[in-house]
Prior knowledge:
Shape: elongated
Strand content: under 5%
Helix content: over 70%
Oligomer: single chain
Mean pLDDT: 88
Largest sheet: none
Low-confidence stretches: none
Number of helices: 5
Structural class: mainly alpha
Amino acid sequence: MTTSVDEKKLEHIARLRKFDPRTLEIARRLFIHHEKPKLLSAEYGVILQRIYAIRKAVLDSVDDGELTLRGPVEALAAARLAYEKQMAKLASRTRTG
């Protein structure tokens, strides 16, 4: 499973988790710039586990089941319609037992 974190969400998580500026910078380079943990560990002079702990803190703050779709309006409308049909189908199964 791939989790996408954009700048706005990362800033929000950083405020919630009370990241210091350096931790936020590392998180930004991990999630926004997709830099390798080993490179960041060497560059910031911290153990690799610290980089992974920052990544875990961010991922733990992302809501389960949250989904953001981006694309052409028509494709998004079709995806939404398919989702709503599937949810209605599941709901009718639940009601009928």
